Amino acid sequence: MNPTDENEEDEYHEIMDANAINKAYNEAINAIKSLRSKMKQYQNQRNSTDPSVLSNYLKSDKAYYPSANKERNGSQRFQCRSTFKGHFGKLHRISWSFNGYLASTAQDQKLIVWSGSDSNAGNKICVVDLPDLSGMALDFSCKNGEYVACGGLDNHCTIYKINYPSSDDEKSNYTKLNVLRKHTGFISDCVLMNDDTELVTASGDGKMYLWDIENSLPTQEFNGHDGDVMCVTECNIEYYGGFGDNKVNNKFLLSASTDGTCKLW
Fold first, then answer.
1. What is the model's pLDDT at position 156?
2. What is the DSSP letter of 177?
3. How far apart (Å, rounded) are the C-alpha atoms in residues 29 and 56?
4. Residue 48: which residues within 8 A CB-CB, separation 6 or more?
5. Residue 185: enclosing H or E segment and its boundaries?
6. Neighbour-count burial of 225, counting CB atoms closer than 10 A to its CB (0-12 exposed, 13-18 middle, 19+ buried)
7. Which of 109, 107, 103, 108 is nearest to 84 (CA)?
8. Three-state secondary structure readout of 219-243
9. Confidence of residue 196 (pLDDT cuts 50, 70, 90)
């Protein structure tokens, strides 16, 4: 056999091997599709003959609004009701106030207060110009939506007062009240407390501070985390029964850090 015949034979075997591989691949794909189809048929059959406990509950008259995932008329409880458009960058945070307003911050260095009521949902109430690198932390007023706290990579937390219009002829505006300076790392989270007289800030410097807003002074420093403190929230002492001895304001604080721990204060 001359070299030419040997090369042709090698090419023939390579083609046969490629065809065998393609054939095996196609057979495997068809087998997977067949199995998927059978699984779907089995699931549909099982759902129709043996629905889940939750499914039975939601379809029954025992399902009570709002604990079940449906409105009183039987429609889904959670659905898109409004879309808020106005920022020109990625959003950082959102926060509700008890009077139905919504606040949001974004990379465009804007803080927008929106109407959250069904009739005017999505309407801009006020636009606040934020300092550079701010907006990572945000908390709306815990009482009536009058105050909003915001902080970020500038290591500061700023308190703004939202001046709502008293008539339709007026426009909302804001007043920059206080700038709280103590942290040496970015502000990751903040919480307004006690009718907006106090504020808790969490930071990348591993600390938290409790602030007297009126005097712009920290009244307590929280140490104990070995990493960035990324979030903080308040909780009522009543949820813990007799645990603890905080009888002054009946509040606890819960913090979480990149050190892998949560702490209750």
1. 92
2. E
3. 37
4. none
5. none
6. buried
7. 103
8. EEEECCCCCCEEEEEEEEHHHHCCC
9. confident
b/e for 15-53, b at 16 or more Cβ within 10 A?
Answer: eeeeeeeeeeeeeeeeeeeeeeeeeeeeeeeeeeeeeee
What residues have CB less than 8 Å from 137, skipping those under 6 apart?
93, 149, 150, 151, 152, 157, 187, 188, 189, 190, 201, 202
pTM, rounded to two decimals: 0.66
Q: Which pLDDT score is estimated for 101?
A: 85
Listed in sequence order, the DSSP H helices in the chain are: 3-49, 53-59
SS3 call for 125: strand
Q: How confident is the model at residue 17 (pLDDT cuts 50, 70, 90)?
A: confident
Q: How many CB atoms lie within 10 A of CB 174?
A: 16
What is the DSSP code (8-state) at residue 18? H
Read off φ and ψ for residue 71, nearest 5 degrees.
Answer: -80, 180
Are 251 and 237 in contact, with CB atoms under 8 Å apart?
A: yes
- CA 31 → CA 20, 21, 26, 113, distances in Å? 16, 15, 9, 55
β-pair partners for 201 = 190, 209
What is the distance between the alpha carbons of residues 194 and 84, in angstroms, rounded to a whole number?
30
